[in-house]
Known about the structure:
Elements: H1 2-9, E1 17-18, E2 21-22, H2 25-32, H3 36-48, E3 53-54, E4 60-61, H4 63-79, H5 85-88, H6 93-128, H7 135-145, H8 149-163, H9 179-184, E5 192-194, E6 200-202
Antiparallel strand pairs: 1-2, 3-4, 5-6
Helix pairs in contact: 1-6, 2-3, 4-6, 6-7
Amino acid sequence: MDMICLMHQGKPYGHLKVGSKVIDDMTLSRMVGCPLDKVQEMLEELEKSEVFSRKNDGTIYSRRMVKDDEIRRKRSKAGKLGGNPLLKQKVNHDDIQMVADEDEDSSICIKEKNKATLKNRFESFYTEYPRKKARQKASQAFMKIAPGEKLFEVMLRALRRQKKSIEWNKENGAFIPHPPSWLNGARWEDEPEVTQEGTWGQRP
Protein backbone atom coordinates (compact mmCIF):
# COMPACT_ATOMS: atom_id res chain seq x y z
CA MET A 1 0.00 0.00 0.00
CA ASP A 2 2.88 2.39 0.74
CA MET A 3 4.27 1.56 -2.70
CA ILE A 4 0.97 2.53 -4.34
CA CYS A 5 1.02 5.88 -2.53
CA LEU A 6 4.60 6.48 -3.66
CA MET A 7 3.72 5.54 -7.26
CA HIS A 8 0.80 7.97 -7.18
CA GLN A 9 3.32 10.68 -6.37
CA GLY A 10 5.94 9.40 -8.79
CA LYS A 11 7.05 11.15 -11.94
CA PRO A 12 6.26 9.77 -14.39
CA TYR A 13 2.99 8.66 -12.81
CA GLY A 14 2.90 5.03 -11.69
CA HIS A 15 6.68 4.78 -11.32
CA LEU A 16 8.54 4.24 -8.04
CA LYS A 17 10.83 7.24 -8.39
CA VAL A 18 11.63 10.47 -6.58
CA GLY A 19 12.27 12.98 -9.32
CA SER A 20 14.76 11.31 -11.63
CA LYS A 21 16.14 9.05 -8.90
CA VAL A 22 15.18 5.37 -8.86
CA ILE A 23 14.00 4.13 -5.44
CA ASP A 24 16.08 1.03 -4.70
CA ASP A 25 15.28 -1.64 -2.14
CA MET A 26 17.32 0.02 0.61
CA THR A 27 15.71 3.42 0.07
CA LEU A 28 12.23 1.85 -0.04
CA SER A 29 12.97 0.05 3.22
CA ARG A 30 13.77 3.36 4.93
CA MET A 31 10.78 5.17 3.41
CA VAL A 32 8.19 2.60 4.56
CA GLY A 33 9.90 1.80 7.87
CA CYS A 34 10.26 -1.92 7.17
CA PRO A 35 13.38 -4.14 7.46
CA LEU A 36 15.29 -4.57 4.20
CA ASP A 37 14.99 -8.36 4.12
CA LYS A 38 11.22 -8.14 4.59
CA VAL A 39 10.91 -5.54 1.82
CA GLN A 40 12.96 -7.69 -0.56
CA GLU A 41 10.87 -10.74 0.30
CA MET A 42 7.60 -8.91 -0.42
CA LEU A 43 8.97 -7.39 -3.64
CA GLU A 44 9.99 -10.83 -4.86
CA GLU A 45 6.50 -12.21 -4.20
CA LEU A 46 4.79 -9.24 -5.89
CA GLU A 47 7.06 -9.45 -8.92
CA LYS A 48 6.45 -13.18 -9.31
CA SER A 49 2.71 -12.46 -9.21
CA GLU A 50 3.27 -9.80 -11.92
CA VAL A 51 1.79 -7.09 -9.70
CA PHE A 52 4.46 -4.72 -11.01
CA SER A 53 7.19 -4.64 -13.66
CA ARG A 54 10.74 -3.32 -13.80
CA LYS A 55 12.44 -1.22 -16.42
CA ASN A 56 16.02 -1.78 -17.58
CA ASP A 57 17.30 0.73 -15.01
CA GLY A 58 15.55 -1.18 -12.23
CA THR A 59 12.62 1.23 -11.83
CA ILE A 60 9.52 -0.46 -10.44
CA TYR A 61 6.30 0.62 -12.14
CA SER A 62 2.64 -0.39 -12.24
CA ARG A 63 1.44 -1.32 -15.73
CA ARG A 64 -2.16 -0.63 -14.76
CA MET A 65 -1.44 2.78 -13.30
CA VAL A 66 0.55 3.75 -16.39
CA LYS A 67 -2.28 2.60 -18.64
CA ASP A 68 -4.86 4.42 -16.52
CA ASP A 69 -2.82 7.60 -16.87
CA GLU A 70 -2.74 7.17 -20.65
CA ILE A 71 -6.54 6.74 -20.67
CA ARG A 72 -7.01 9.91 -18.64
CA ARG A 73 -4.78 11.85 -21.01
CA LYS A 74 -6.70 10.56 -24.05
CA ARG A 75 -10.03 11.45 -22.43
CA SER A 76 -8.80 14.91 -21.57
CA LYS A 77 -7.74 15.43 -25.16
CA ALA A 78 -10.99 13.96 -26.54
CA GLY A 79 -13.05 16.14 -24.21
CA LYS A 80 -11.83 19.20 -26.04
CA LEU A 81 -13.61 17.89 -29.17
CA GLY A 82 -16.99 18.38 -27.51
CA GLY A 83 -19.82 15.92 -26.87
CA ASN A 84 -19.76 14.24 -30.25
CA PRO A 85 -22.23 11.29 -30.11
CA LEU A 86 -20.01 9.28 -32.47
CA LEU A 87 -17.09 9.65 -30.07
CA LYS A 88 -19.25 8.60 -27.12
CA GLN A 89 -20.10 5.35 -28.89
CA LYS A 90 -16.40 4.38 -28.82
CA VAL A 91 -16.08 4.37 -25.03
CA ASN A 92 -14.28 1.25 -23.83
CA HIS A 93 -16.07 -0.01 -20.70
CA ASP A 94 -12.96 -1.92 -19.60
CA ASP A 95 -11.11 1.39 -19.59
CA ILE A 96 -13.87 2.94 -17.46
CA GLN A 97 -13.54 0.14 -14.93
CA MET A 98 -9.76 0.54 -14.82
CA VAL A 99 -10.09 4.25 -14.07
CA ALA A 100 -12.66 3.47 -11.38
CA ASP A 101 -10.26 0.97 -9.83
CA GLU A 102 -7.47 3.55 -9.92
CA ASP A 103 -9.72 6.08 -8.17
CA GLU A 104 -10.39 3.49 -5.49
CA ASP A 105 -6.63 3.08 -5.03
CA SER A 106 -6.35 6.85 -4.61
CA SER A 107 -9.03 6.73 -1.92
CA ILE A 108 -7.21 3.91 -0.12
CA CYS A 109 -3.97 5.88 -0.36
CA ILE A 110 -5.62 8.90 1.28
CA LYS A 111 -7.03 6.70 4.05
CA GLU A 112 -3.58 5.24 4.72
CA LYS A 113 -2.11 8.75 4.99
CA ASN A 114 -4.88 9.78 7.39
CA LYS A 115 -4.21 6.68 9.47
CA ALA A 116 -0.50 7.54 9.65
CA THR A 117 -1.39 11.09 10.71
CA LEU A 118 -3.60 9.77 13.51
CA LYS A 119 -0.84 7.45 14.69
CA ASN A 120 1.57 10.38 14.87
CA ARG A 121 -0.98 12.43 16.79
CA PHE A 122 -1.53 9.62 19.26
CA GLU A 123 2.21 9.33 19.84
CA SER A 124 2.31 13.07 20.58
CA PHE A 125 -0.66 12.75 22.93
CA TYR A 126 0.74 9.73 24.78
CA THR A 127 4.15 11.38 25.13
CA GLU A 128 2.46 14.44 26.63
CA TYR A 129 0.20 12.46 28.96
CA PRO A 130 1.74 12.19 32.46
CA ARG A 131 0.40 8.76 33.35
CA LYS A 132 1.64 5.97 31.09
CA LYS A 133 -1.01 3.27 31.54
CA ALA A 134 -3.09 1.05 29.20
CA ARG A 135 -1.38 2.27 26.02
CA GLN A 136 -3.19 -0.16 23.70
CA LYS A 137 -6.64 0.76 25.00
CA ALA A 138 -5.68 4.42 24.81
CA SER A 139 -4.64 3.98 21.18
CA GLN A 140 -7.95 2.29 20.34
CA ALA A 141 -9.91 5.07 22.05
CA PHE A 142 -7.87 7.73 20.24
CA MET A 143 -8.39 6.11 16.82
CA LYS A 144 -12.13 5.89 17.51
CA ILE A 145 -12.23 9.64 18.20
CA ALA A 146 -10.00 10.27 15.16
CA PRO A 147 -9.42 13.94 16.05
CA GLY A 148 -8.77 16.38 13.25
CA GLU A 149 -6.12 19.07 13.53
CA LYS A 150 -8.30 21.59 15.38
CA LEU A 151 -9.76 19.10 17.88
CA PHE A 152 -6.30 17.67 18.53
CA GLU A 153 -5.01 21.16 19.39
CA VAL A 154 -7.95 21.60 21.78
CA MET A 155 -7.16 18.26 23.42
CA LEU A 156 -3.49 19.12 23.90
CA ARG A 157 -4.26 22.55 25.33
CA ALA A 158 -6.69 21.04 27.82
CA LEU A 159 -4.23 18.30 28.74
CA ARG A 160 -1.42 20.78 29.37
CA ARG A 161 -3.71 22.89 31.53
CA GLN A 162 -4.88 19.89 33.52
CA LYS A 163 -1.30 18.74 34.08
CA LYS A 164 -0.77 21.93 36.08
CA SER A 165 -4.00 21.57 38.08
CA ILE A 166 -4.00 20.99 41.84
CA GLU A 167 -6.12 17.86 41.39
CA TRP A 168 -3.60 16.16 39.12
CA ASN A 169 -0.68 17.08 41.32
CA LYS A 170 -2.13 15.63 44.52
CA GLU A 171 -0.39 12.62 46.05
CA ASN A 172 2.13 12.24 43.24
CA GLY A 173 -0.50 12.15 40.52
CA ALA A 174 -2.76 9.57 42.15
CA PHE A 175 -5.85 11.35 40.80
CA ILE A 176 -4.73 11.50 37.18
CA PRO A 177 -7.09 9.30 35.14
CA HIS A 178 -5.66 6.61 32.93
CA PRO A 179 -5.35 7.73 29.29
CA PRO A 180 -8.28 5.57 28.02
CA SER A 181 -10.56 7.03 30.70
CA TRP A 182 -9.52 10.56 29.79
CA LEU A 183 -10.19 9.92 26.11
CA ASN A 184 -13.43 7.95 26.47
CA GLY A 185 -14.75 10.54 28.91
CA ALA A 186 -13.88 13.44 26.59
CA ARG A 187 -12.10 15.03 29.54
CA TRP A 188 -10.66 17.77 27.36
CA GLU A 189 -14.18 19.26 27.58
CA ASP A 190 -13.99 19.61 31.38
CA GLU A 191 -14.47 23.20 32.49
CA PRO A 192 -11.60 24.64 34.52
CA GLU A 193 -12.33 26.20 37.89
CA VAL A 194 -10.48 28.72 40.04
CA THR A 195 -9.26 27.32 43.35
CA GLN A 196 -9.03 29.20 46.63
CA GLU A 197 -5.30 29.58 46.03
CA GLY A 198 -6.10 31.51 42.84
CA THR A 199 -4.65 28.92 40.47
CA TRP A 200 -6.49 27.02 37.79
CA GLY A 201 -7.73 23.65 38.83
CA GLN A 202 -9.83 21.00 37.10
CA ARG A 203 -13.17 19.70 38.17
CA PRO A 204 -13.07 15.97 38.97
